[in-house]
Amino acid sequence: MSTLVVMIPGDGIGPEVAAAAEKMIRASGASIDWIYAQAGADTAEKTGNPLPVETIDLIDKHKVALKGPTGTPIGGGFRSINVALRQHFELYANFRPAKTMKGLETRFDNVDLITIRENTEGLYSGLEHVVTPGVVESLRIITEKGSERIVRFAFETARLYNRKKVTAVHKANILKLSDGLFLDVARRIASLYPDIEYDESIVDATCMRLVMDPSVYDVLVMENLFGDIVSDLASGLIGGLGMAPSANIGATHAIFEAVHGSAPDIAGKGLANPAAFTLSGALMLRHLGMPVEAERIENAIRTVIAEGSVRTRDTGGTAGTSEFTDAVIEKMEL
Description:
Blueprint: E1 3-8, H1 14-27, E2 32-36, H2 41-47, H3 53-62, E3 64-67, H4 81-88, E4 93-99, E5 112-118, E6 128-132, E7 135-138, H5 144-160, E8 165-170, H6 178-190, E9 197-202, H7 203-212, E10 219-222, H8 224-236, E11 247-249, E12 254-257, H9 275-287, H10 291-307, H11 321-333
Parallel strand pairs: 1-2, 1-3, 3-12, 5-10, 8-9, 8-10
Antiparallel strand pairs: 4-5, 4-11, 6-7, 11-12
């Protein structure tokens, strides 16, 4: 029996990488039926609403979605679709693995990190107002509930993936109340997991250490804004966002997405790298209880990248989207 999953192709290169990912997921043997939904800047232009109610209803019904990149205006315009979805479905945990791929030219050959980002609070709560002309105030919300569930998620993730250490990333030396609360909660939760090492690291020092020696970290857990920045930094250590999958997990719903942009400059040209979107699909398959199919996809992508003869432009090659997709499928068929 097939599993029904909502597919949101998104903007720009989204439809191209979504179509490629569908082919690779089908080739893995995973039994998935797609239900298509719309969201993004193109949808806003066509319908006046970047996130239609119909899309929300489909995700609510089927619980799992695979989402392409969606454009968000800088400054004015509509609210971030990603933030809206995360808050609506309480997708409180953002899961971002970053692991070195053999064959890519990167500074380090031993990166194997998991960044766990709180997804619904912090400065991304969207609580902003004009105090007086020329002065804007943004509120950073940190709660005990939000801190507890994200730290617990980090420790459970560490156990699931056989990780040895969880690091709480913070700025409690300056943000003494908000990050102080986060650390108090983290220390309490850590005491419940004596089998896993726990330590703490100030966010700026964390970034410095990551670019000097990322092997000092294992699983990193932090609030929303810090997680947004640090997870992208970790992706840069393995070759960029084109290789970085992502999962947004809540108690009842989950949305998986590539975190790269919609790249309108190459949209429709068949040049986009579908690896991140497809690897996000592999995370989705694991969530759905299909680890064999997920591993088949991951291993095939890694093999193609390692062999080096078929790579997209962002990874130093000349291959297009379809050529890369066919090469990955061929490896799965061997």
